[in-house]
């Protein structure tokens, strides 16, 4: 059924043993949510029934076999599989990863075909999703391949937006990954997203240095002097409002981030630690640069609290 004026919101179920399913379903305990979106969850009737009963969730849902058949005003569950995998809350299992990927693939296919408008991905366990067919460290890389785009991991709240030059890369490999081409690509992705997705006409972007103290003029590593500074200088000369590189500790400690529309961090923890410290529970992981909208919560599978009914939606 066509939902005029409503967003068809696709949701991949994530790790079955984590909190993703609970958070998704608990969101729709508030019936007002169905007034402006039509949820389409990619899992199975049995899985959603088990989550509903175990966690005592006050919801009703409708099972469908095709995402194109979603019904407005209902929580729609696409039956992606017929088998009955076991939910073992709090446990890390290969089975949970297998069904997380089945859900994700079905959801992405629906997104590509236009059966859903946007995609929210519940958290996965990066270890148990690995197999011969799925060789990606996380959602972002997989979506970039499937949607033929250049992706940017962009953590956002109303007051703070942090993008990453490198995301799921081992620290020992970070410096060699950061090239002038990568810096340019990511800066332009941030700039374009701020304009197109957030309506900021002339975005100001701060870039964090690679080394401690941004290298201290080459004393602590040469990458900031030889790679980062010349590239940012060229971008600035071209008219982009990009500044840096800044030493991350002082940048956040002095609240300099408040002077910019977004921050581009050199590597994962450099950006994510301050972001989650300042915004945990309020942030959204948004994949910029794709032809479709994909978001995710700013937390993981939370196996330690799964099945306890305490996850906050």
Q: How many structural domains can be distinguished in the coordinates?
A: 2
Number of helices: 9
Q: Could you name the ranges where pLDDT drops below 50 across 5 or more consecutive residues?
A: none
**Helical content band:** 25-40%
Oligomer: single chain
- Class inferred from helices and paired strands: alpha/beta
What's the CATH H-level homologous superfamily of the largest domain? Isopropylmalate Dehydrogenase
Q: List how many beta strands DSSP finds.
A: 12
In CATH, what is the class of the largest domain?
Alpha Beta
The percent range for strand residues is 15-25%
**Radius of gyration, Cα only, in angstroms?**
21 Å
Q: How would you sum up the major sheet?
A: 12 strands, mixed
Spatial shape: elongated
* SSE ordering: EHEHEEHEHEEHHEHEHEHEE
Average pLDDT, all residues = 92
**Strand order across the largest sheet:** 3-4-2-1-5-12-11-6-7-10-8-9
CATH architecture of the largest domain: 3-Layer(aba) Sandwich
Q: What do these coordinates show?
A:
This protein is α/β, with parallel strands linked by helices and 313 residues long. The protein has helices at 20-27, 45-54, 94-113, 139-146, 171-177, 180-196, 223-237, 248-253, 268-279, and strands at 7-12, 37-43, 61-64, 75-79, 118-121, 152-156, 161-164, 205-208, 242-246, 262-265, 284-288, 293-297. The protein contains nine helices and twelve strands. The protein has a twelve-stranded mixed beta sheet, sandwiched between helices. The longest helix is centred in the N-terminal third of the chain and has 20 residues, at 94-113. The protein is elongated.
